[in-house]
Design a protein that fits this description.
Blueprint (H helix, E strand, L loop, with lengths): L9 H19 L1 H11 L17 H31 L13 H34 L6 H9 L2 H13 L3 H30 L7 H18 L1 H12 L6 H12 L8 H27 L3
Helix pairs in contact: 1-3, 1-11, 2-11, 3-4, 4-5, 4-7, 7-8, 7-9, 8-11, 9-10
């Protein structure tokens, strides 16, 4: 039985559904993320904590999950809708334009997802810096890691602290944009295929969205693992260094195999995370716009 039409705006629905989805996935799969970070650490898995304290740094994740995911989905859904309206709108002479083909829609999804990731990184990068330093046992918890960074203000100044909090911003963008450029068009494509199979439904179910999110996430995670390794090493380094310098150092010290460190946990984490994240998002979004 269908629920009554909702008066919830698409903006608010995306905001709230994204916040719920981000918090749910980050907290539920946090231990796997910790193990992945320690596998990628230059110090080695066991010196970085091994299997001990797998919830180290979780405070940072709790603080950053909801706003980061909300920013992503508000930007993603908003730009996707704007691009679709532009492609499917009316021309100045009032004649109906031909509806976008599948390729045009895929391009819209890539652009919207990329913009969403850039917006989300405004929150994600500082929380990642703090979280990963706690995960790698450089500090006992998120608060200690944050205090250590802030305590450097006397030596490096406010701007230096700001740069330290956003260390790895560039490489995070370089990692996240290809990841979402792979994951979201695949997810949207599978959802569109399912809608065609079922006829008139406007949205897929939460379960279907979760399955598609898991498959798309696993593929994107595997292909972007080298960028994730590079990002992790840059955030954990004792001193700031460029992506090129970090890449050369990793290659020199550990060889090419280092760039697939943590591949298994990353695929497992993001595959499960894709199911929870996009399944939860679809459930919340469908509920708020009145679709059951």
């Amino acid at each position: 039985m269908s629920s009554l039409p909702s008066t919830q705006s698409p903006f608010t629905s995306a905001l709230l559904a994204g916040a719920l989805a981000g918090t749910t996935v980050d907290i539920s799969l946090y231990p796997i993320d910790t193990l992945k970070t320690r596998l990628q650490s230059s110090a080695g898995f066991y010196p970085s904590g091994g299997f001990r304290g797998i919830y180290a740094g979780v405070g940072s994740a709790i603080v950053g999950s909801a706003p980061g995911a909300a920013l992503f989905f508000v930007t993603y859904e908003g730009l996707k809708s704007r691009l679709r309206s532009t492609r499917d709108g009316r021309r100045g002479d009032g004649m109906e334009m031909v509806r976008s083909d599948g390729w045009s829609e895929a391009v819209d999804h890539v652009l919207a997802a990329s913009a969403g990731e850039v917006a989300a990184c405004a929150v994600r990068v500082p929380t990642e810096v703090v979280k990963q330093r706690a995960q790698a046992a450089q500090h006992p918890n998120s608060m200690a890691a944050l205090r250590f960074i802030l305590a450097q203000r006397g030596d490096i100044g406010v701007l230096g602290v700001w740069r330290e909090m956003y260390r790895g911003w560039g490489i995070t963008i370089i990692r996240e944009v290809p990841f979402t450029a792979i994951q979201f068009p695949l997810w949207e494509g599978m959802k569109a295929w399912r809608r065609r199979q079922t006829g008139s439904r406007q949205q897929v179910s939460a379960l279907e969205s979760g399955v598609f999110g898991s498959l798309a996430g696993a593929i994107a995670a595997g292909l972007t693992t080298p960028l994730d390794v590079l990002k992790t090493r840059m955030m954990l380094a004792k001193e700031r260094q460029s992506a090129a310098t970090s890449f050369s150092q990793i290659w020199k010290d550990s060889g090419p195999k280092a760039f697939v460190a943590g591949l298994g946990p990353r695929i497992m984490w993001i595959s499960a995370g894709g199911a929870i994240f996009l399944g939860t998002y679809q459930w919340a979004y469908n509920s708020m716009i009145g679709i059951t």
